Amino acid sequence: MIKNNTYIEDIVDDYPELIIPLKNYGIVCIACGESVWGTLEEQAKDNNIENLDQIIKEMNDIIKRKNS
Question: Structure pTM?
Fold first, then answer.
């Protein structure tokens, strides 16, 4: 389950299906071609993303659909 304090590198390692959604949300990661690390919340703040709760919900929904 993704939370605001989940590290980007953990998301990429554990849920590679979220790499494209992360990029679409404006949070790029090393797999997307940028060397961005830290927590999801830190990256959201750095990128002036204000809808982090909605992004987290959508990412967790993607994970749930994949696992069902």
Answer: 0.83
